[in-house]
Amino acid sequence: MTMILVLGAGFVAGPLVRYFLEFPEIKVRIADVELPKARALAGSHPRAEAVALDLRSDESLKREIAGADLVVSLVPYAFHPVVAKHCIAFHRNMVTTSYASEAMKSLDADARRAGITLLNEVGLDPGIDHMEAMRVIHRIGDEGGTVLGFTSWCGGLPAPESNTNPFGYKFSWSPRGVLLAGTNAAHYLKEGRETLIPGPELFAHYEMVNVEGLGTFEGYPNRDSLSYAGLYGIPKTRTMFRGTLRYPGWCATMKKIADVGLLGQAGRDLRGKTFGGLLRELTGLPPASDLKTALPERLRLPAGSAVLDRWEWLGLLAEAPIPLDQGSPLEVLEGLMLDKLRYAEGERDMIILRHEFRYAAADGGERSAISTLIDYGLPGGDSSMARTVGLPAAVGAKLVLDGRISRKGVCVPIHREIYGPILRELEGRGLVFQENEGPAGS
Fold first, then answer.
1. What's the helix, strand, coil split of the chain in %, to 5?
2. What is the C-alpha separation between 148 and 137, in angstroms, rounded?
3. Which of 32, 54, 110, 125 is catalytic?
4. Domain 2-119's class?
5. Beta carbons of 15 and 394 less than 8 angstroms apart
6. Dihedrals φ, ψ of 49, to 5°?
7. Using CA atoms, how far apart are residues 406 and 399, in angstroms rounded to an integer?
8. Is residue 382 classed exposed, middle or buried when 0-12, 13-18 and 19+ CB atoms within 10 A define those classes?
9. Where in the chain is the domain with CATH 3.40.50.720?
10. pTM above 0.70?
């Protein structure tokens, strides 16, 4: 019987584990630092088992990997290269939904020598976004066309009826991942103009994006888009842009949060301090100052600003004590958001993934294509985020197990033999893109 080791029992692991258990020849061992979470995921299924695992225990991690036939790593991204090194040592294939970091890419030659596959970026974003982009790009190329522009938007948001808080956001995946994504620099190309945005300025660079049937969203750039022109095989493109979608108001609010240092990870002595006290320290206000009066001027915001209303609703201005287990501004912010920005029972999340292509057709004319996936979570069941991240990873892992993905080394799902069967399987499970074409600019 084949043993799959799943590292991490968090937000997106449920659909992945259940997919594996559809196959009677597969057993799943779920490892998490919080054993109750792993046990809840395993349930009473005879081919699922749970184990406590602290990733900082190298010997325990090696023992778990050695006993598996394939490893799916759903842990924080910094641990993926550590897991991958052990997979190389024990000749075990590995799948992860995270970006292929430079540390991961550096393991490519070792993985090839070991004859194993390290399949990365096989979730939603990154993941399904790559797959659908390559499907359309390859189709355009097969028809004799040349891609001249590519823009991609992705957002994991509350469904409209579940958008019930001032932030317009609720967590359907790692809260820390969401917040740290807002510290990344961005690099993109638009109509031949290359732009580099430092991380602290990220939220100042957004535009309004209309999605048919859903309304208008804020869109801001996501990481290094430019590098994907080469990866996608579209060197003549004049636009290469990948962005994130949020409900209006998010960017202004997060820009001020970044400005005052609330995304800082450096440790501080917060014992005995209040949330309001920390905010006074970060903004340089006197200890006895009234935040509601002093902050607008300090942050250059108008009186009655919706930004400060959101901060107050979250609890950042409160004189309540900061919990003892929080030792950095980021941890304080994360704790407040985890408490307030959560889905209530029966609420749905929503995934929007939208690709826009402009290309020169074989007949000499310019055309456009738009491919859109809109998906909703199941009230009382899996979130859309869990399905769109967990299912492609599960399908990719099964393809590796079955030998249908033969590429070795560090790879991402940009190749037909990888994205084709994954997209077909996802379509059978209701994750379907709608593609529309027209003349350029339509």
1. 35, 25, 40
2. 11
3. 125
4. alpha beta
5. yes
6. -140, 155
7. 9
8. middle
9. 2-119
10. yes
User: How would you class 198 by CB atoms within 10 Å of its CB: exposed for 0-12, middle for 13-18, buried for 19 or more?
Assistant: exposed
User: Catalytic annotation on 58?
Assistant: no
Cβ count within 10 A of residue 351: 26
- In the CATH scheme, what is the code of domain 128-164+184-249+344-383+433-439? 3.30.360.10
**Which of 83, 89, 79 has the alpha carbon at shortest distance from 116?**
89
DSSP per residue over 134-196, as a string?
HHHHHHHHHTT-EEEEEEEEEEEEE-GGG--STTS---SS-HHHHHHHTT--EEEEETTEEEE
The pair of structure tokens assigned to 303 is 């009186």
- With 0-12 CB in 10 A as exposed, 13-18 as middle and 19+ as buried, what is 79? middle
The b/e string for 137-176 (b: 16+ C-beta within 10 A; e otherwise) is bbebeeeebebbbbbbbbbbbbbeebeeebbbbbbbbbbb
**Are residues 160 and 243 in contact, defined by beta-carbon separation less than 8 angstroms?**
no
The per-residue pLDDT string of the chain (442 residues; one tens digit each, 9 = 90 and over) reads 999 999 999 889 999 999 999 999 999 999 999 999 999 999 999 999 999 999 999 999 999 999 999 999 999 889 999 999 999 999 999 999 999 999 999 999 999 999 999 999 999 999 999 999 999 999 999 999 999 999 999 999 999 999 999 999 998 777 788 888 888 999 999 999 999 999 999 999 999 999 999 999 999 999 999 999 999 999 999 999 999 999 999 999 999 999 999 999 999 999 999 999 999 999 999 998 999 999 999 999 998 899 999 999 999 999 999 998 999 999 999 999 999 999 999 999 999 999 999 999 999 899 999 999 999 999 889 999 999 999 999 999 999 999 999 999 999 999 999 999 999 999 999 999 999 876 555 4
CA-based torsion, 17, 19, 22, 25: positive or negative:
negative
For the chain, residues classed under CATH 3.30.360.10 are 128-164+184-249+344-383+433-439
**For tokens 């801001």, what's the residue?**
220
Q: Is the bond leading into 126 cis (omega within 30 degrees of zero)?
A: yes
| Tokens 């074409």 found at | 437
